Amino acid sequence: MAAVALKCTAPWRFVKLRSLVRSTVPSLKFHTTASPMMAATVEQFEQAKSNLSTLKNDPGNEVKLKIYALFKQATQGPCNTPKPGMLDFVNKVKWDAWKALGSISQDEARQQYCDLVGSLVAAEGGSSAQVAAQPAGSGVAYETLLVTTEDGITTIKLNRPAKKNAITTEMYNDIIAALEQAAKDDSVITIFTGAGDFYCSGNDLSNFTKIPEGGVEQMARSGGDLLRKYVKAYIDFPKPLVAVVNGPAVGISVTVLGLFDLVYATERATFHTPFSQLGQSAEGCSSFTFPKIMGATKATEMLLFNKKLTAAQASELGLVTEVFPDSSFQSEVWTRLKAYAQLPPNSLALSKQLIRSVEKERLHAVNDAEVELLMERWVSDECFNAVMSFFQAKAKL
Ligand code: COA
């Protein structure tokens, strides 16, 4: 796939930009403190521009496009330049991003630009006027995650409801970063949940269709490295980790549940790991945690024979801590979690670490073994054919 470059005023300014044609810029959601009553001053805008150039981490293509669009809107007003041609990919996605801002005023665009840059600076632990302006309970800006800290609870919410919260390569990296941040912040517990009617539909299968220059072997190697790092972030997470399973869960969102400390599920949730159907094999340490939690034969039904469990069945088998009626799920669970977050933080964290320390080395070894096998599976015909069938079936609909 061709790689193109997007120009931005930051250290990461010439970056490879893949698949921008599939960009979902209009659906981007950012935390913003913008208000029609309040607009950033020209000085604040200038300050935000120079803060942008101090960022060390690449915030990702969609955020960079949003920054670009807000800058253009703030300095030139609504987009009224001619639409670039279909083959002028880079200018077309930039134009789309600017156009998507519609008729918002230059003042409003300036404020949103300052807010966005401020939250990126805050995410890197810096300080700026915009950081101070962030309200309590707000969080770091990610493209497809909503991360907030409030009442002693850091919540990591997968926020890609149109794709049932399927996890893209960028999301894996963002989740790792969010977990690292949550481990260090002043929250007591960390919660994982999903936006919309699904908890998560697992690995985004289109990750398999983005073949790098080094071919499928290269794709398998970098996929393996990322997966190892992703699962490691759960194994090493030092505070109580709670899954609030708000709907059906598939694949890796299910397998890592064995590494959570509590799993609360709505009665609507289901738990499905269709690995053999996809020519793949288990990950998330489930080849170790599932037999341990539910016994070898029940784990086999799930991990080899793709059995989908209801929330009640998952609870009977010990994978889920408790199931709640869908109508009262959110209120019951959050009331309980807010009370848990009042407990002494060190006592909770140290007790969790004590319980997990017994098998930590083992879990890392299991993670390594699972990743090795998966890297082989990903280059197999069985896997290739299964992924192609998924997208072909979609195409026929
Ligand atoms: N990877 C890529 N795209 C996914 C996805 C995934 N894991 N899960 C859902 N999507 C996409 C669908 O392709 C669809 O996209 P579209 O609107 O552009 O067509 C959109 O999300 C909504 O999904 P849809 O299939 O229409 O919803 P549904 O309620 O009928 O079914 C699932 C939801 C999750 C059961 C179904 O999408 C599915 O089986 N997904 C694959 C799950 C999977 O195998 N995960 C990997 C496990 S290892």
Instruction: Specify the CATH homologous superfamily of the largest domain.
Output: 2-enoyl-CoA Hydratase, Chain A, domain 1
Q: How many domains is the backbone divided into?
A: 2
The helix/strand order is EEHHHHHEEHEHEEHEEHHEHEHHHH
What is the strand tally? 11
State the helical fraction. Answer: 40-55%
Supply the helix-strand structural class.
Answer: alpha/beta
The level-1 CATH class of the largest domain: Alpha Beta
As a percent range, the share of strand residues is 5-15%
Shape: globular
Return Rg in Å: 22 Å
Distance between the termini: 26 Å
GO molecular function, one term: delta(3)-delta(2)-enoyl-CoA isomerase activity
GO cellular component, one term: peroxisome
Keywords: Isomerase, Peroxisome
Subcellular location: Peroxisome
Question: In words, what does this structure look like?
Answer:
It contains 15 helices and 11 strands. The longest helix is centred in the middle third of the chain and has 21 residues. The strands form 3 sheets. A 6-stranded mixed β-sheet has the order 3-4-5-6-8-11, with helices on both faces. The N terminus is likely disordered. The protein is globular. The chain folds into 2 domains: 130 residues, Acyl-CoA Binding Protein; 252 residues, Alpha-Beta Complex (2-enoyl-CoA Hydratase, Chain A, domain 1), CATH 3.90.226.10. With 397 residues, the chain is of the alpha/beta class. A hairpin with a 2-residue loop joins β3 and β4. The site of coenzyme A has 15 residues, from loops.
